[in-house]
Design brief:
- This protein is mainly alpha-helical and 260 residues long.
- It contains eleven helices and no strands.
- The longest helix is centred in the C-terminal third of the chain and has 40 residues, at 220-259.
- The chain is globular and about 65 Å long.
- 27% of the residues are buried.
Length: 260
């Protein structure tokens, strides 16, 4: 049922008619016009740039934060995780308005800028709401990992930093990748927070599409949405397949240890 709207959208992107309820004929004109629309491609590029930068930064900081939280005492860890989950349960409009007020206050009052909301405020906002998703995906992998592996690495001469990159990071990589993918899709999809934290020169694709709904959505949006859906679905399939293979290897390794 959830995929029915996407099927309608994909079929509509190949429809010669403008009415999605009637398929008049097959065409690729919507895709041709899409790649000729410099404005729409520019907005897509801006959205991809924000999503990519925020994902990389949030994944790095989220992974380090997850390791730090995991090493805390149980009671303190539980309290910090509760605070970490608040941004995910908090309504987007509250997060967007609060960040907007903060950026305007800092930009106008403290830094004296005429334009308080810029590309950088948009990027900071996306990093902020992406961090909890990365932490939430990395924490289970840390709990599944055998802690004796890092101790063994340091006993054999590794520094804590070397132990992290050679032992811990490979073990939790499926969680890191899953968190990064989730952060990327959340950033690319976000409208509410972006609406309140973006300036006139840093518009994203979801904001533009929303403004189109007040008049008429361009048929090229169907083609663009189809491409984005297929690409994200393909990436998720790859990540899930790699994760399943890694879990299988870990299970075989554990069985071998038990038999040994």
């Amino acid at each position: 049922f959830l995929y029915i709207p996407m099927v309608v959208l994909i079929v509509g992107s190949f429809n010669t008619g403008k009415n999605l309820t009637q398929f008049e004929g097959f065409t690729l004109q919507q895709y041709v016009r899409l790649f000729q629309d410099d404005k729409l491609l520019g907005l897509l590029g801006n959205s991809l740039l924000v999503a990519t930068l925020s994902t990389v930064i949030a994944t790095v900081f989220g992974t380090v934060s997850a390791v730090g939280i995991y090493n805390l005492k149980p009671k303190l860890r539980k309290a910090v995780m509760s605070l970490t989950n608040i941004p995910m349960t908090n309504p987007d409009i509250v997060t967007g308005v609060s960040l907007s007020l903060l950026f305007i206050f800092v930009g106008s009052n403290l830094m004296g800028q005429k334009e308080s909301l810029t590309f950088w405020t948009l990027l900071i906002a996306h990093i902020t709401f992406s961090l909890p998703y990365v932490i939430l995906n990395v924490m289970p992998k840390l709990k599944q990992m055998d802690s004796s592996l890092t101790d063994a690495a340091m006993d054999l001469g590794c520094t804590p930093l070397q132990s992290f990159f050679k032992v811990t990071l490979p073990e939790i990589m499926p969680g890191v990748l899953a968190g990064g993918i989730m952060a990327f899709t959340m950033s690319l999809d976000d409208f509410v927070i972006s609406y309140f934290t973006s300036g006139s020169t840093s518009q994203t694709l979801p904001i533009t599409i929303y403004s189109m709904t007040r008049r008429k959505v361009s048929p090229e949006i169907n083609a663009l949405s189809t491409i984005m859906f297929v690409v994200v679905l393909f990436i998720l399939l790859i990540v899930n397949i790699n994760g399943a293979r890694q879990d299988k290897k870990n299970a075989e390794r554990n069985m071998a240890k038990e038999e040994g």
